[in-house]
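Retro notes
What went well: the complex prediction finally ran end to end.
Inputs used:
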Amino acid sequence: MRGVTDRLRGTGLLLRFALRRDRVLVPVWVLLLTATVVASAAATGPLYATAGERVAAAEALNASPAIVALYGPILDTTSLGELSMTKMTVLYAVFVAFMSVVVVRRHTRVEEETGRAELVGATAVGADAPVAAALLEAALASLLVGTLAAVGNIACGLPAMGSVLFGASWAGIGHVGAGIAVLSAQLSSSARTVGFIASAVVGVLYVLRAIGDTSASWLSWLTPFGWGTQLSAWSEPRAWLLVGYPVLALVLTAAGLALRRRRDLGAGVLPDRPGPARGAPRLGDALALVWRQQRTGLAGWTVGIGAIGIAMGSIVPGIGDLLDTDRTRPIIEAMGGVGGLQDSLVFALASVVAVVITCFGIGAVTRAAGDEHDGRTETVLATATSRAAVLVAVASAALLGSTWLLLVSGAATAVGRGDGVGAVGAALVQAPAVWVVLAVALLLLSVRSRWAVAGWAVLAACVTLGQVGAGLELPDWVLGLSPFHHVPKYPAEAFAWTPELLMTALTALVLGVAWTRYRSRDIG
Amino acid sequence: MEVVSNAIEVHDLVKLFGRARALDGLELSVSAGEVHGFLGPNGAGKSTTIRVLLGLLRADGGTTTVFGLDPWRDATAIHRRLAYVPGDVSVWPNLSGGETIDLLLRMRDLDPRATRRDELLQRFEFDPTKKGRAYSKGNRQKVALVAAFAAPTDLLVLDEPTSGLDPLMEQVFNECLAERKAEGTTVLLSSHILSEVERLADRVTIIRRGRTVESGTLTELRHLRRNRVRAEVSGPLPDLTDLAGVHDVEVDGRVVSASVDPVGLPLLLKALDAAGVVSLTSAPPTLEELFLDAYRSTGG
């Protein structure tokens, strides 16, 4: 017993310190998620006043494989709670899991990579205290977001029992996210790689559920993201399924801690391979440097986006047969027949994948901000490299990299679907909207490198507008603040040049302003 | 037409960070071919000055030229002729040390194979195959040092370059710097330790709180090389105050301490020997002591 208390000594102090460091990050994250729950719960009831309307709406959602793939099915079509929480049950649960991943990675592997863990470890703090504090913070944040979601739902008039179970599922997925993060954090000595591994695990679990919900239903039971739906919080709940979250979280955490005890501080389970003693002749300027930095990440993204594209594409051709029932036929007819249904599915998938791909671009921009913060940009600019070359390199990684991923996504969807250019086109029409968001992120970087991280907030705002804006019946100009709102719904609707060209011009304009700022500001 | 003979010319330089005046009328001039010590305590503005010289920061006032060019406007033209070693080197975590060195050389339009890179790797006992994130502070410093010393250049800008190096490696650094000096390279060497620049510097500029306190050759700044001597004697204390080159004499029982110029040292030692010296320490002045001196002499 004494050994355990020794190893945990100072946990409370480190927890308070961690909470202080995250005093903006975690509350903002929790409040954003709570706000989407409340907005959704408050908007859905008035929108579908009668039970008949609710059933019709739920059946329409269930009839769309794109929506089922994204949000999971609605098991009880009569339930107001389940309809209100369609998007929150699975898709937003991913953001809950990511909150834990960010918190745990930030206070474990990032601290080790920067050497701060060494500084803390040399004090009279127990060896397990830092990781315990990180896990505690993630647990507290998960419980908080779960509680607030439950309270918010009850306040909006949804059934108390269902609200609590739903909140519990969110708290549960938060714990699982922490478990995934603490296990991933042991694997590599690179915080970046750790983030990539944890995100990939979350992504795979989410996609497994998407495949399960649309074709092989047993798969949905194997992933914690499927449990949110199968819990059936709002009617005839399977409350026992809630046990799955803490059990999985404990198994992951125990495995992570066991690995942690077997390794040195700062080391990873996966060994660091030695690099070449000499640089390749091509690695000789800012552009080559940025692409070399992005190489591994972009390869991983290409494989991941390609796999998702093929999986999603393969759903498309089957939906005509899948949905050909007496009940759904009128809905399908209204959407333009089976062909029209397939086209709107292709558009819906492409618009979601575009948001995911934008994350790659913003990652490239924030990475440049990190280079500047750490002094590497200074080292580059003290050579014969111009500021223009540095900014062009970052912009090219963000803009061309994400455009390449859109192309991969479209091509993979086309391959999975087994035909046509429609999918490639559907992916590429998203490009101008993606560029606008990335240009704003580059502008933030160019004004002040510390501001680049706000690029994530810009993307989050665009997504939130798109997701809850229509439900809240916000005015069109507010919805139009998100560039994704202006993307033509190709191939479901005709392609339109005007918004695409305007967004491209806006991108150029914002980049121009960014350059004038970047050339005239202090570096560092 | 005025001939530009100074590699670096800084006059009345002002740099503001918000309301804080990081540089407040700084003066610095470095002639071509000299090794110039740039001294000041932590936070005095050494790195800020260097960043202005490199065109990374924009000056808020005064004039700054490097090779007669404006570093803000002509940064890349200037950078082709210099090599820079920052005080806290950060390397790319997923590039090997060798890759980083070659990258930095290529970014200065140099071909690594035509440089002395391999020889320097050996001299600095540096393993170029490790990934950036695995290097200690000293090893990260070596990445920048090897890249800087590998090829001839007109100007070396070194910002506390030996921080993190062990004494053996510091020795290698000093050899490399001496070779460069012999080749006629202009060097701006910043440090907060006087003895570090003493060996090689032709001239020294001392700054404090963003202002130049002293500037000149080491002979001109003779009082900078005044040592503080502290001795315990067994016999009666002689009167040291009249000795040439001995200043600030303090007596405390059998312990006497005094500041002494190099010329006064033999006289002082003779006097102490006569008094039956039991113990003796001699320490170079700290920068803070120098500043006190400088303030005293300028009445500031």
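What we learned: Residues 167-183 of chain B form the longest helix (17 residues).
What to try next: split runs per interface for comparison.
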